[in-house]
Q: What sequence folds into this?
């Protein structure tokens, strides 16, 4: 398992915003909550907390841009949820 801070748009390590790589999958964690999982097969699973706060949302979009095939735009996330290409699970279901 490898854990690193998200790098923000200013090029600095973001406090309490993490990327976790584990068994070929990549996770985004904001504070104590695992928000998203991008698996080795290119599937994105998220919790409703992706939209919890401005800070979480901002870093979630950075995660999408830097670690997934998604472009980190709100409309893309909402459309992906609607068409089923992005799976939403309840909070806690992505925890290790």
A:
């Amino acid at each position: 398992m490898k854990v690193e801070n998200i790098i923000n748009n200013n090029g600095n390590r973001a406090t309490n915003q993490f990327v976790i790589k584990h068994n070929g999958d990549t996770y985004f964690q904001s504070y104590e909550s695992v928000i998203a999982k991008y698996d080795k097969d290119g599937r994105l699973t998220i919790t409703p907390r992706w939209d919890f706060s401005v800070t979480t949302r901002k870093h979630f979009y950075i995660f999408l841009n830097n670690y997934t095939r998604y472009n980190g735009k709100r409309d893309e996330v909402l459309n992906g949820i609607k068409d089923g290409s992005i799976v939403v699970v309840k909070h806690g279901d992505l925890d290790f």
Notes: The longest strand covers residues 13-22. The chain has a mean pLDDT of 95. The beta strands are 2-7, 13-22, 25-30, 33-38, 44-46, 86-88.
